[in-house]
Amino acid sequence: MEKAESIKKVHDHIEKDFSEHLDRCREFLRQKSISATGEGIKETAQMVKGFVEGIGGTVKYGGDEDFPIVYEYMDMRS
Questions:
Q1: CA 5/CA 73 separation, integer angstroms
Q2: Would 78 be classed as within a structural domain?
Q3: Any bridge partners for residue 63, and if so which?
Q4: pTM for the complete prediction?
Q5: What is the dihedral of CA 44, 47, 52, 55, to 10 degrees?
Q6: For each of the chain's 78 residues, which pLDDT tens digit applies?
Q7: How many domains, in total, are found in the chain?
Q8: 42, 45, 71, 75: which is deepest, by most CB within 10 A?
Q9: Which domain, by its residues, includes 48?
Q10: Alpha carbons within 13 A on the beta-carbon side of 49
Q11: Does 64 fall in a domain?
Q12: Cα(26)–Cα(50) distance, rounded to whole angstroms?
């Protein structure tokens, strides 16, 4: 698939379910994630993990248990 076709496919999907995507973005933006205090860091990592897995990706954590780094993989060949 050409790059332009892939981008159009993504845009079409976003347009089709725009209100759902907007709600998900709002939910993410409301999630506290304060690195100085650690507040919400693990919860935000879990949220990102859920988003990635929800669209078919896989997730691996790195870093410290209290300050995880989320590594994701998406197979874009299909």
A1: 21
A2: no
A3: 68
A4: 0.74
A5: -150
A6: 688 888 888 889 889 989 998 999 999 999 999 999 999 999 999 999 999 998 889 999 999 988 999 999 988 775
A7: 1
A8: 45
A9: 3-73
A10: 13
A11: yes
A12: 15
